[in-house]
């Protein structure tokens, strides 16, 4: 009996350990990559409502109806990480009707991408982060006849028991046009109704109308009972309308909410058709605190009957400190105030309203009960200290809260110092100072909040682009166009200058960031043949460039010449950038590249591309990405394709770079009519000369690429190499006067080449050194498990690599023992868990990381999306559809391998049944373990009772 008891207890402990150990395995997030995946959440055993999800690409919902994820009976209680990707509502009918499976009744329910999330009885926290919702259609719901239908683009109803149980972070709504979100009650841009929650770094922007037919509407949230808002905003051309309780950020707060660094700005209209309209919040029944918040721009706040405030219309209790509003405030009948329409202590235990160190610079209008800071109050007078308002903000004010000041004096720092218009000096300086709350540009602008100083300056046209680094101050928007600022394109930029002046110099380099936002920069013309450091930017250092597309450019300089940058140094990053569509870059002397002419000390390119009629020419050091990089460079997931010409009059030219010291190349490709020519030495499909332990992994150069060094050292991957090559291939046409190699022209001591092959031709113009893998060497290299097609050339002068027939190179057994020392990581079908895949008797080995969907003929390896622009001023969404790739050398026309062999949906998405199966198997395993635990417990207690 003791034995049975012990065994049962041991089983319980063992299984508990297995469960705990398996948590790490089961905790891997579930990937969402399509609309169908989204629809499975809560409707598929492998996609539970309590799961942890990650979005792996942008998703477009074209359905005219959308069944919200989770309803009041089956709520979403997991986590969802958008990873910065977008979900676009783009119904083909122009309106997306939101539904849920509950069917609608008088019980509370939510409508949105997610309907109802959270469970008040659960100890778990629901988290939604890094999700971008994009409107390209209207949003409404099917239950407009029902009182409770709470609607938001991201979440309809958050139903949790405390603020800590729900976190929304770094998420946004953007409207690509004049679209509407409409419901009956509690309607918000992102969330309809939240019982509780913490909201950080979220925004609503664009041209959008948000409407509640009855009560409770906000630009961000329609109704929130209790929560924390930090760094949240509503901006752009936004219209917020309800019968009652309308707020620029939030419509209605019945309990308590804390606001820090929140704002409403732009052309925002807040309207209550009856009562309670506020620039930031429509109505707080009990309490709220506001710190470092503002309402600015062309913001109008209107109550058609009563209660309107530049910040809040009805304020039950709480604090406003270090805030300002510049709204146009109007209550048709009564109770209008610059910051607060009406203050009323609502019950025992609540303190009076306090307003400190704040100002109003808009207008106030009402028939009765109005003021520059406060319209009126009930029961206990608010405490208003050190607050001022513009003396032209209105007339007939019925109270004396706050101090009126002229516009000129409101722009002077002395106004906010002791002895000025305040009794206690504000925390203010005459320039941005992190130790102060406020700063002021004297005689230019009213005080601004340091905590909400604009971190990113929008660039809508070439006029603003030219201001970068000018130190010009835009006092209306508080933008300072310095070299260290962060900039973002908000529309396609067409450069009209006949001869552009590069931004940044050696003495004053650009050290900020430029986010292209998917837009294009076009018509760049620079003709400075005697100048150094020539490009859109002349000199940059410690800078970052992302999501930028340069098209239709003609750039000429003397040396250090690039399409985007002439000279870069010290940690410069390029992320998802492209150069395409008729671009010419020329250096009269040396160091010329499509992106950068010359770079020093750590430069990186990630998901970047050069394609479509691009020409880069110079005397020496020439590359489509960069001519020269000294001391560490990273190229990851980069591509060159489609009519690219690279020419050097002297030395070192490469598909990606002319010369690289300490370079790391991974998942890079060159394909489809690319010409690499030097009239002297060192031409390479990827790099002219790669020095100082440079490494290549999973890279390819496809047929259709020609590499020529008229004098010496030409290679399908590199003209010269001191480093390593692993899991790479080339099918280029390689030619050199001397030292012509299928992969590398000349290698140095300790160079290692493994598991790679050559399937092009390597020939000599006049010399004697050539080979299927390398042309020549200084010191014995280490070359193992490498192959070249036996028709690659004749008269090879070294025996590195194994020649094989075209037929044998299309068989998987060629790459397995005993034909190799170490088996290649290769499988007979596309599989991202393996480096290589091969279609027997039809293709040479292909790289799973870049050769996604081979077709019946040679084609370019898929590169990153290059955006493109429509000139609409709207955000763009990338298309990630792969193209064909790799050296597909079919000897019988019409017998090629097609997408149908890999995918059931015309190549737009590759489906791997084993992945779903793995998730299902894990679910079954957990159920089995749970049953074993129950049985063990029964046995244990049965034994105990018998004792």
TrEMBL record:
Which Pfam families does this UniProt record tie to the protein?
Answer: Glug
**Region named Disordered:** 855-902
The family database entries (InterPro entries) matched by this protein are listed as:
GLUG
The residue ranges crossing the membrane are: 922-942
Q: Does the keyword Transmembrane helix apply?
A: yes
Extent of Polar residues compositional bias: 875-884, 892-902
* Domain spans labelled GLUG: 185-209, 214-239, 276-300, 591-615, 650-675
Keywords assigned by UniProt, alphabetized: Membrane, Transmembrane, Transmembrane helix
Q: Does the keyword Transmembrane helix apply?
A: yes
Would you tell me the protein name for this molecule? GLUG domain-containing protein
Q: State the organism named in the record.
A: Methanimicrococcus stummii
